[in-house]
Amino acid sequence: MVDGARPEASVDDAVRIEDDPVLPSRRGTSSPDERERVVAEALAHAEARDAVYRRPLADGSGWWKVALASLLLLLAAGFAVAPPAWLGKPAPVTLAAATRARGARLSLYLQARQVEAFRVVEGRLPLDLAEAGEALPGVRYLRSSGRVYQLVAVGPDGRAIVWDSTRPVPPIQREGARIPGVEGPS
Amino acid sequence: MTRREVALTGATFGDVLLVIAAIGLAAAMLYPGMRARAYERHLEAVVADVETVLEAVERVRADTGAWPERRPAEPVVRSESGALPREAAPTYRIEWRRLAIADVPEPLTDAEADVPEGLDDEDAPAPPEPSLHHLGLVSVHAADDGVLEALLGRWGMDRSFVHDTTWTLVLPRSPARVATTGTP
Question: Closest chain A residue to B147 measured between Cα atoms?
Fold first, then answer.
């Protein structure tokens, strides 16, 4: 140990290295040689311990951590961009075209019923739907004469659905009459 | 990195990266579920808002016998859920309408319209007068189909329908009254 540095010392060696060099306990004044020896011993001890810790870790000892972390980060990015259904993300809802088409027809039916109510009360057609009372969203009113009007709604396929007051569409009338409370007593 | 550095920092670069990746993965896996639950709560809030409007108009109908007039304010309720990011929370507005409809009775048959001999025309049976009713309409405007579908699911397709971005619930006619001149 007195010989100086041990750059190739192993961990086991480090275990065997005493924590503190034992200095001789003696009374009286030490000689210069003895002091030099003790100092050299202490320096050698410190250098030996330092050599153990200075030894680089084996290359690649943590590569699997970096690889695993990269894999996890990749997975996280994938889940963030396109989360699968089993993570609980609800599928986007799109209403069926038939449902929307039925809604357009019922809007026409109800609006026509209101225009007819206005005609019964006033004896004429309203100038616009606002005059009749309520304008249902998505329904256009076209008055072609003092007695004839059309109601137009756009279906889900982009085509116009037309209600002509001179030729009401029986299927729409039947569909509208099936709404509870529209026909008959409440 | 040396053992001394390990001893000083307590963790290697790989350790830190691994922990960050694990936290990121956990967050990425938990977030969709949390967001879905928040969205469901939002849909429940929309349904609850409509039920509140229904309760109010039914109370008016019970008190007065007729559906209330249209609310002057355009949006009756505008609700935004705080559980979702602002851009993810679908907005909607609820409207109340009262729609007049008229029942026009069938004209009298010839036999009914005939005036018996010895009676004046004034004694002839009067032609039936049309009666006016009001339907109640609750509409929810929402661009999100999920909201519209939730409302259809709650109230069914017999009484409600969707046109464009509007769900409408039809409430039964109020008691009849004889149609007179004036705005229905």
Answer: A93
Could you tell me if A102 and A158 lie in one domain? yes
Q: How many residues does chain A have?
A: 186
Residue B154, pLDDT > 90, answer yes
Same domain, A102 and A52: no
Q: 3-class DSSP state for residue A164?
A: strand
- Amino acid residing at A70: S
- Is residue A4 a part of any domain in this protein? yes
B98, two tokens = 């009262």
Alpha-carbon distance values, B120 to A85, B111, B117, B125, B126 (Å):
80, 16, 8, 11, 12
A81 lies in a domain?
no
Fill in the amino acid letter for A33: D
**Confidence class for position B109, pLDDT limits 50, 70, 90:** low
Count Cβ neighbours within 10 Å for each residue of A73-101 and write b for 16 or more, e otherwise. beebeebeeebeeeebbeeeeebeeebbb
% chain B with pLDDT above 90? 33
Q: How many angstroms separate the CA atoms of A100 and A154, rounded?
A: 10
Q: Does B9 fall in a domain?
A: yes
Nearest alpha carbon to residue A87 among B36, B174, B118, B150: B36
Measured between CA atoms, the residue of chain B closest to residue A57 is: B2
Interface confidence: ipTM more than 0.90: no
Q: Is B135 exposed, middle or buried (0-12, 13-18, 19+ CB in 10 A)?
A: buried
Residues of chain B with Cβ-Cβ distance to A134 below 8 Å are 70, 97-99, 137
Say how many domains are in chain B.
1
Cβ contact A57–B20 (<8 Å): no
pLDDT in tens, B111-149: 655 555 655 555 555 656 677 888 999 999 998 899 999
Indicate if A111 and A171 belong to the same structural domain.
yes
Residue B151: CB partners within 8 Å, gap ≥ 6? B46, B47, B50, B140, B160, B167, B169
Cβ of B163 within 8 Å of Cβ of A100? The answer is: yes
pLDDT top residue among A182 and A142: A142
Contacts of A115 in chain B (CB under 8 A): none
